[in-house]
From TrEMBL:
This is Major royal jelly protein 1. GO terms for cellular component: extracellular region. It is found in: Secreted. Its main location: secreted. Residues 1-29 form the signal peptide.
Length: 407
């Protein structure tokens, strides 16, 4: 059973993570986040502001990330990792991020051999376009094969209280020869003192079909934290009540999943604290939602709302939320990023184009944060999974969501 699961993981990641991505555009004019404290967690208003179109590129706010530009304690340590095969620069890629003030926390999944750490931090200093990635919170927690450490972080979330929640699937070398090092878990780290404050074993919540893909954090109106995890393979949303130490599996109706490919999720929040989780499989022609108040008590039956058909009958990919009520997405096979205010009807006339796509890199996420911009994380992931990146590895860029001007 274990070998079948790992084989399934390999097939899914190699074919479906490519579908997660989208080409993005050159940096031109920025869109501001509704998150007032410049953090990725926190409450936000229900609108997103836009700036006027500007022909001048925001070069000082464009950060290049590379597997060849990691922070090492010393050259001798780096040499040991290289010689032992534990560091192969071209095998390192950043796929997800969270922003907090002038820092970015990043996930570096161990898709291939030679990824020295799987959770990192980048300082976003203005004007330093090539940013070094450092292990976060330390080197010791990155040890592969140590189940007290992180094995392969595929997603992360920073909440309103400054806690970083990392989703560790426990499987490494997913695109080569998958190895299950440890069971899946969620690790919470206090970003104020960089200490691990909680580790949640998800082994009892998963099945042989499980494929954990995304994580979001929600707070009830009485300020209690809950974690939601998208389990695409088992057609479920996992719910963990942090304070009550309870967990639930919300099994989604079969109608929501024509095929169990990628299960995208994004959380919106109103000013009164009401939260809603929007979700959709890539192959599904429709968007669905469920209120946080139902998720938090494990109530799935009768609580799921059919938001409506995806515009033009196209497959759409959720890229993220603004911290308020707006969602970002793109159409499969198309490059442009769109914004939709979830307070309006889900139809084509209510979609706003916020970035025109380019031809090189592919976006994995849109997120709020630094300088009150909305940001896009993009890379040439399609080259990465096909081993076409060369010795320098993947091209990864973090920059404000922008709209290209007309000539």
């Amino acid at each position: 059973m274990a070998s079948q699961l790992l084989h399934h993981q390999l097939l899914v990641v190699s074919t479906l993570l490519l579908l997660l991505l989208l080409p993005s555009a050159p940096v031109q004019a920025g869109y501001s986040s509704s998150d007032g404290d410049e953090s990725s967690g926190g409450s936000a208003s229900n609108s997103i502001g836009t700036s006027k179109c500007d022909k001048n590129p925001l070069a000082e706010l464009t950060f290049q990330l590379s597997g060849s530009n990691l922070h090492w304690p010393c050259d001798s340590t780096k040499n040991i990792y290289v010689q032992s095969g534990r560091y192969v620069p071209r095998n390192v890629i950043v796929t997800r991020a969270q922003l907090q003030r002038d820092s970015a926390f990043v996930a570096l999944p161990r898709y291939k051999q030679g990824v020295p750490f799987t959770l990192g931090k980048v300082n976003l200093k203005k004007g330093e376009c090539l940013a070094k990635i450092a292990p976060y919170p330390c080197w010791a927690i990155q040890e592969e094969g140590n189940c007290q450490a992180l094995q392969s972080v595929v997603d992360l979330a920073v909440d309103q209280n400054g806690l970083l929640w990392a989703l560790d699937v426990g499987i490494v070398n997913t695109l080569e020869q998958p190895i299950r090092r440890c069971g899946p878990k969620i690790v919470a780290i206090n970003t104020a003192n960089h200490k691990v404050v909680k580790s949640i074993d998800l082994s009892d919540l998963v099945t042989a079909e499980s494929r954990l893909q995304f994580i979001v954090v929600d707070y009830s109106k009485d300020n209690k934290p809950f974690v939601y995890v998208a389990d695409a393979g088992a057609r479920s949303i996992l719910v963990y009540d942090i304070t009550g130490n309870k967990s639930y599996r919300i099994v989604l109706p079969k109608a929501t999943a024509p095929t169990s490919d990628v299960l995208y999720v994004a959380l919106t929040s109103k000013a009164d604290g009401t939260s809603t989780l929007f979700f959709s499989y890539l192959s599904s022609p429709r968007l669905y939602s469920i209120k946080g108040e139902y998720l938090r008590v494990g109530q799935g039956a009768g609580s799921i709302i059919d938001v409506g058909p995806k515009p033009y009958g196209k497959q759409a990919v959720l890229l993220g939320a603004d911290g308020g009520t707006s969602l970002f997405f793109r159409y499969k096979g198309e490059n442009d990023i769109y914004l939709w205010d979830s307070e309006t009807c889900f139809k084509a006339s209510n979609l706003q184009e916020v970035q025109r796509g380019g031809d090189c890199r592919l976006s994995t996420q849109v997120l709020p944060g630094h300088k009150r911009f909305m940001w896009a994380l993009e890379s040439n992931f399609h080259d990465f999974i096909s081993d076409r990146t060369g010795c320098n590895g993947a091209s990864i860029v973090l920059h404000p969501v922008v709209k290209e001007c007309d000539d």
